Amino acid sequence: MEEYPTKQVAENLDDPPNSRLFAVTSRSITEDELRDSFSVFGDIQGVWVVKDKQTKESKGICYVKFARSSQACLAMEEMHGKVLMEGTKPIKVFIAQSRSSTRHRDVEDEELTRIFVMIPKTFSEEDLKNTFKEYGDIEYCVIIKNKTTGESKGLGYVRYYKPSQAAVAIENCDKSYRAILAEPRTKATASEDYSGGASRGDYMGNAGDSMNQYAYPMADPGNYQVMDYRSGDFTRCLMVSTRAALTQEQIFALFDLVPGMEYCELQRDAYGMSKGHALIRYSNLGSAVYAKEKLNGFEYPPGNRLAVNFVDDGEDRSSPVGRMAMQFVAAQMMSAVWNGPSTSQGFSAVSQMSRIQTDVNLPPLKKLAPPDSKSKERLFVVFSPSPLPPDVLEDVFCRFGSLIEVHLVPGRKVGYMKYADKQCADEAMAALHGRVVNGVKMKVMLADPPREESHKRPRTY
């Protein structure tokens, strides 16, 4: 099978990076129809439909190459799940792997939203945000600081909500910022020199140490001055300890349920491995007190009890007025926490369910459909970074009605939800696609219909 017509074109497929799409479509959709559908997003340099080398018929897989990565990302965001022609199934659209990649999965959205920039050492986080907010909605900004002096290293991260926004920022910001996509935290980083003679790996591998607003000693959580809330030593900063291997995204999603979080960083050693601790900072004392009381001892995932404590945030509260104000706010929050309707295992403002933490407004629980019900629709779900337990998935997906069963594919980060009613499945897909439940992001899409023939199935994620 020859995917691309010429060697010269093939050599330019990854220039610029992330400018090529991989799409799963209906076999009846032609190259011209694909070109017409995707051309509204930018300059298309090529469309290739993968065909069976024996029958010359489409395999329902195609690649679309754009001139700019921002165009490809926007096309992915807008076209994924769309129906191109009446009577055909919704298409699945992803950023294609580079031709040199050895991975066996598609590029995740999370890998395309965080950029690494070089900035003036005088920049504050607010300066960084104001500089890059014109390119899209920013989730958070972090400036890398010297762990001893607390001074900026002239480096930072900006995380956007959408891949297209990060791509636009890289393409259009001043070249002096040298903006590039940040390396995934779980990946060994390249040794590429930056100002000061330090390597990229130094900044990435020690991000947990250097990304510290208050220049704490970061080598050991024992170096933090842990506060006792009973003595009135409340602060805006929390230290979270976990025995389970939680990711930065899982911790961020959990603590972001409490409004006001402005900083979250998983502590890592020199090799980029998690130390089992994370530093959380809120913009106000009340949010920190509430998060501490609600999440200290919270089991996430089930069986792993989180330990959450206050740590010194560097603010001077030695004056009687400052201490009185701090204790007054804390007392007000403690009253709201203990007298509220929820228990210490849930968020009354977010959800009444103790074991499900999500920003989705879920309907009430509904009964499962009888096991012998005929399946009218199946949903295909991709989990990142790992699958949710079957009982949690059943709890979430049954709320839209007519759920028959939940099936997780052993050894893989995917699963299927079987429904007896198509409308219920469509409502579940619309509500849950791209959402985070218990720190796990889900891609929810219509599953391909079961095939009777023995052809090899194209990848769908």
Beta strand %:
15-25%
Order of H and E elements: HEHEEHEEHEEHEHHEHEEHEHEHEEHEE
Largest sheet: 5 strands, antiparallel
Net shape: flat
The number of helices is 12
Biggest sheet, spatial arrangement of strands: 14-15-13-17-16
The parts where pLDDT drops under 50 for at least 5 residues are 1-10, 186-225, 337-354, 452-456
Number of strands: 17
Helix content: 10-25%
Query: Given the helix and strand composition, which structural class is it?
Result: alpha+beta
Head-to-tail CA distance between termini: 21 Å
Gyration radius over CA: 24 Å
- Average pLDDT for all residues: 76
What's this, in brief?
The chain has twelve helices and 17 strands.
Secondary structure blueprint with pairings:
Elements: H1 7-11, E1 20-24, H2 31-38, E2 44-51, E3 58-66, H3 69-79, E4 92-95, E5 114-118, H4 125-132, E6 138-145, E7 152-160, H5 163-172, E8 180-181, H6 200-205, H7 207-210, E9 237-241, H8 248-255, E10 261-268, E11 274-282, H9 285-295, E12 307-311, H10 320-339, E13 377-384, H11 390-397, E14 403-408, E15 414-419, H12 422-432, E16 436-437, E17 440-446
Antiparallel strand pairs: 1-3, 1-4, 2-3, 5-7, 5-8, 6-7, 9-11, 9-12, 10-11, 13-15, 13-17, 14-15, 16-17
Helix pairs in contact: 3-5, 9-10
Question: What does it look like?
Answer:
This protein is an alpha+beta fold and 461 residues long. Helix content is 24%, strand content 23%. The chain is built from twelve helices and 17 strands. Strand 2 and strand 3 form a beta hairpin. Helix 3 (69-79) runs antiparallel to helix 5 and helix 9 (285-295) packs across helix 10 (320-339). The longest helix has 20 residues, at 320-339. The radius of gyration is 24 Å and the shape is flat. Mean pLDDT is 76; it is low at 1-10, 186-225, 337-354 and 452-456.
